[in-house]
Amino acid sequence: MRKSMRSKVTVVGAGNVGASAAQRIVEKHLADVVLIDVVEGIPEGKALDLWESAPVEGFDCRLTGTRDYAETAGSDVVVITAGLARKPGMSRDDLLLKNYEIVKGVTEPIVRHSPKAILVVVTNPLDVMAQTALRVSGFPKQRVVGMAGVLDSARFRSFIAEELDVSVENVHAMVLGGHGDTMVPLPRYSTVAGIPLPELMPKATIERLVERTRNGGAEIVAYLKTGSAYYAPSSAIVEMVDSLLRDRKKILPCAAYLEGEYGIRGLFVGVPAKLGRQGVESILEIPLTEPEKAALNGSAAAVKELVDKLKL
Ligand code: TXD
Prior knowledge:
α4 (96-113) packs parallel to α5 (126-137). It is globular, with a radius of gyration of 19 Å. It has ten helices and 14 strands. A six-stranded parallel beta sheet has the order 3-2-1-4-5-6, sandwiched between helices. A three-stranded antiparallel beta sheet has the order 7-10-11, with helices on one face. A three-stranded antiparallel beta sheet has the order 12-13-14. The protein has helices at residues 16-27, 42-51, 54-57, 96-113, 126-137, 149-164, 203-214, 216-224, 231-245, 290-310; strands at 8-12, 32-36, 63-66, 77-80, 118-121, 144-146, 171-172, 175-176, 184-185, 191-192, 195-196, 250-259, 265-276, 279-283. The structure holds 1,4,5,6-tetrahydronicotinamide adenine dinucleotide. Residues 12-18, 37-39, 42, 81-86, 99, 102, 105-106, 122-124, 126, 147-148, 151, 179, 227-230, 233 line the site of 1,4,5,6-tetrahydronicotinamide adenine dinucleotide (TXD). Residues 12-18, 37-39, 42, 81-86, 99, 102, 105-106, 122-124, 126, 147-148, 151, 179, 227-230, 233 line the site of 1,4,5,6-tetrahydronicotinamide adenine dinucleotide.
């Protein structure tokens, strides 16, 4: 039974990314949060600990930690972070089979209890796990979206701001394609105070920042050794959740299911998408040069290879 008019978000997976996302959601007053995991005590303990911060932080959103899907019922948005994270030397694709079983296993009870939810998939390999959630849920494509581009472009933006010593608020960046080594950063559509990046930096500098963005995930894994990034990933998730719940209609780079856009069909690929209360409300098709198109197609081909392995 719903006791409040607040929105409800379930976060599946109470690990680093899931717990950080839960924290950011309540601290931004966006929604009540149900944190769910398979490990006994972890979701309960983290949710309680977060709730005990509410009087100091000043949020009224409630937190529940559970292993029981009944408590997730009626969620408006469900963020799926359940899975294994990369260890050093492990590629995102090594995670494929293991995480496929996990994402399939959590999507089934989620959609039974929240048939109207919007699913935000985070588990790697991202684009393929989004496709898993789409197929298993049977939801319309508008209600399944993957988080990767917001993170990749946030990394790119942070490096640009640092390089030029300007406010991060002046910097916008567009990153298309699959999450991972095949991502397609678009410097032409990346701007500082509205000025395209190629007007502001030599080509070699742009290339260096693009390369660092491409390896952004691995750079963090190499430092942490026992886990992967979660502060920036959780920020990226919550920007999407905010736009969905509050119908802000932000254009954000997201993994969306394409049916002919950019000449790609039947795959999740990172593209600029409008996120509102209906989910992925539209996909923006921006003109690409031949090399950019080729890079996007290469990225889609890499996603397709994994999708074919899983027969999705
Ligand atoms: O840009 C992106 N999309 C990503 C993706 C950015 C960062 C992290 N990315 C991926 O998210 C990462 O490669 C992993 O696949 C997930 C979660 O990363 P996180 O760093 O949070 O991993 P943790 O800390 O290991 O947490 C995973 C939790 C852990 O508590 C497990 O017990 C739980 O998932 N888990 C489950 N929960 C519910 N149900 C099932 N079946 C389950 N299996 C594991």
